[in-house]
Amino acid sequence: RLVTLAITLLVALRIANLSASTIVATSAFTAVILGLAAQQTLGNLFAGMVLLSARPFRVGERVRLQAGGVGGTVEGVVSSLGLLYTTLARGADRIQIPNNVVLAAVVVPIREPDPVDVRVRLSAGIRPSQVQDILDEEITTPTRSPAKVLLEELDGDDLIVRVQATPERADDGAKLADEIIAGLASFTGEHSLTE
Q1: What percent of the chain has pLDDT above 90?
Q2: Alpha helix positions (H), the chain
Q3: Are the beta carbons of 99 and 41 closer than 8 angstroms?
Q4: What is the mean pLDDT of each run of 10 residues along the chain (195 residues)?
Q5: Domain boundaries, the chain
Q6: How far apart are CA 62 and CA 58, in angstroms?
Q7: Parallel, antiparallel, or unpaired for β 158-165 and 148-155?
Q8: How far apart are CA 164 and CA 104, in angstroms?
Q9: pTM for the whole thing?
């Protein structure tokens, strides 16, 4: 098919009385224009192939990119690696960074400390908002975000909540757990912490 198309095109150009040198010059000019127009795209494409084969980071990892092309630093969780763009998630925001910028950037992997996750059984008269208020007062260890109090289930007259928090530093995990348990002690009374 392609050979037939090429022969048909050459015959049509000959019928139009164009010389071979005109055809070659026009083809060269067109190739230069297309090459310049596709330079960014091709650069991103080749950078994407390098990133996919070298794997400096994987989907789901938290990274910080430091480069002039990203306006200083950008931090987020890698949500996708494509041939043209790398997408970072930062909360509800999605940031698409061209792969040639990512390839030129310094990639700093950020290791997340293990989160503290506590399940507790409380009497039905206690509201999760009360637990949140006490924990906000009790927790002094720096955390990545405020502790979350999640209602898991109602069990008869009791309710079971889960408290989750992640310390800024991995070394502070035990201290954060102690502060959460101390804050919950005022509510648990005879109720015990569950798994």
Answers
A1: 17
A2: 2-15, 20-37, 39-54, 99-104, 128-138, 173-188
A3: no
A4: 78 76 79 82 87 89 85 89 91 90 89 86 84 90 88 85 89 90 76 46
A5: 2-37, 39-110, 116-194
A6: 9
A7: antiparallel
A8: 37
A9: 0.50
Q: Supply the CATH classification number for the domain 39-110.
A: 2.30.30.600
DSSP, residue by residue, 14-36: HHTT--HHHHHHHHHHHHHHHHH
CA–CA separation, 185 and 189 (whole Å)? 6
Q: Which helix (H) or strand (E) holds 88?
A: strand 85-90
For residue 58, the SS3 value is coil
Identify the CATH number of the domain defined by range 116-194. 3.30.70.380
The tens digit of pLDDT for each residue in 71-82 reads 788 889 999 999
Cα(177)–Cα(117) distance, integer angstroms: 8
Distance CA 184, CA 150 (A): 14
Dist. CA 3–CA 11, nearest whole Å: 12
Separation between Cα atoms, residue 77 and residue 144, nearest integer Å: 14
Give the phi and the psi of residue 62 in degrees, each rounded to 5: -90, 130
What is d(CA 184, CA 155) in angstroms, rounded to the nearest whole number? 18
